[in-house]
Design goal:
By secondary structure, the protein is mainly α. The chain has 2 helices and no strands. The termini are far apart.
Length: about 70
């Protein structure tokens, strides 16, 4: 299952890169609108897929961070 999810993430990420490259070329207004719409769809799909496949989220602690290791002894 994880291999399939990673393959899907990679495919969507590759599509996003391809659409971004296309947007840097000379396009008609209709083509540009289509690619921008597809780019938004791919980004939304990638975000949902990533959240489903990798639900772990790391948050930063609030307040000052104390050093760990040799720096803490100084």
């Amino acid at each position: 299952m994880l291999d399939e999810d990673l393959a899907r993430v990679r495919a969507h990420r590759n599509n996003i890169h391809r659409y971004r490259r296309l947007l840097r070329t000379k396009l008609s207004e209709l083509e540009r609108q289509f690619i921008e719409r597809r780019l938004a769809q791919e980004q939304a799909t990638l975000q949902c897929l990533s959240a489903e496949s990798f639900p772990v989220a790391f948050t930063q602690p609030k307040g000052p961070v104390r050093p760990v290791g040799p720096e803490a002894e100084r």
